[in-house]
Amino acid sequence: MSVSSVRSQLRSQLRESVSTAILEAAEDLIAAKGLAGAPLLQIAKRAGVAVGTLYNYFEDRDALIRALFEMRRATLRPQVRAAVGKGAELPFEDRLRGFVRDLFEVYETHRKFIKVAIETEHLRLSSSTTSQDIHAAIAELVKSGVKERAIAAAHAEILPLVIAGSLRAVVLKRIAENKKLAAADADALVTIALDGARR
């Protein structure tokens, strides 16, 4: 490898490292203080770079947040897909419970990012497909439930909406309360969705 190739590779690694530091600083500040409490100057300071350097990487805060969504989506999407594929040999209900538990674990691991997603949702800065991915994953599981005759075919269209909506509501509530997303919540959600809440 030539000296110029090594230099080019080092510059590329440094650029990626600085970009990641800026994105993680933005995630930390927005999660902790909200969007209003995370001006670019503070994000740059937390990342250990000059604000001018930040502008070399991102045109404005919207571009920075879009890049953060892209970075986290690259991590989250495979984890969601892995959760769907897990336990393919299990009966439908066990698979669904496992999926929702695994999803809660993914969300808990990326709690700061989930807070950022909630905080910036109204801005429509990201064309994130995560919610569609989750709905599609649940719909896929429900199809297997219909095939097993565990779910009535008449409910196959609505059930994924019920589960996805309930999942979102529980995540929002637990994060707002600063409580951990627990397996017990996942199990309760699945039980209520499948059996109802009647005595």
Average pLDDT level: 89
Count of spatially separate domains: 2
CATH top level of the largest domain is Mainly Alpha
CATH superfamily of the largest domain: Tetracycline Repressor, domain 2
Are there runs of 5+ residues with pLDDT below 50, and where? none
Provide a descriptive summary of the structure in words:
- The chain is an all-alpha fold and 199 residues long.
- The chain has two domains: 58 residues, Homeodomain-like (Arc Repressor Mutant, subunit A, Orthogonal Bundle), CATH 1.10.10.60; 138 residues, Tetracycline Repressor, domain 2 (Orthogonal Bundle).
- Helix content is 74%, strand content 0%.
- The protein contains nine helices and no strands.
- Helix 1 crosses helix 4 and helix 1 packs across helix 6.
- The protein starts with a helix and ends with a helix.
- The model has no long low-confidence stretch (mean pLDDT 89).
Characteristics:
mainly alpha, Tetracycline Repressor, domain 2, elongated, 2 domains, 199 residues, Arc Repressor Mutant, subunit A
Summarize this structure briefly.
The protein is mainly alpha-helical and 199 residues long. It has helices at 3-33, 40-47, 51-57, 61-85, 92-109, 111-120, 130-147, 159-176, 183-195.
